[in-house]
Amino acid sequence: MSNPSRYFRLKPQMLSGKWSLDEPRDSQGRELEDWREFTSGRPARVSGPLRIPIEEGGRRLDYSTAGAGMTPVVHVRVATLFAELAPDDVQLIPADIPGCPDEYLILVATRLVRCIDDKASEEVVYWTPEDGRPEKVGKYRSVYGMRIDPTKVRAAKVFRPWGWTGVLIISEDIKTAMERAGVTGAEFEEV
Question: Which of 22, 56, 134, 144 is at 20 to 30 A from 15, Cα to Cα?
């Protein structure tokens, strides 16, 4: 199969009346040490099942994010789609949502790809010594209008860009499959 040439940022759709999910917790209801574990671009080192409290009730969606970490949470039918189309790129962690009879999983992109195209992106800003954060010097401080270099992606279909891991990127075939399946709550922005 050839490497797809178009990629999309997968974002939660801003809808009124939808549910809002809190930070994932362990099976005893305790907050996890580091929620960034789900958005680092590496496999998470937690074992499920986890619990995700509902922060605000509303319409359930097939694709949502939980808490401030924007942890992707997907309905089992969306998880199945990712497992079939990108088995080497995702980790799916069972998550219990109290009061919700459907099965949901946390979607972890297990690949981190150095692919942001600084010149093609609208604006990129790096941390400098003057910012007073020596541990961040040379890393992205902000990225606007992000564009990636698809030639650097190789075989990845689901990944997070190195240096800007708050963004989840999927290949065009996954986007198309999600649209065909009528997945609710997902929005796509070409990168």
Answer: 144
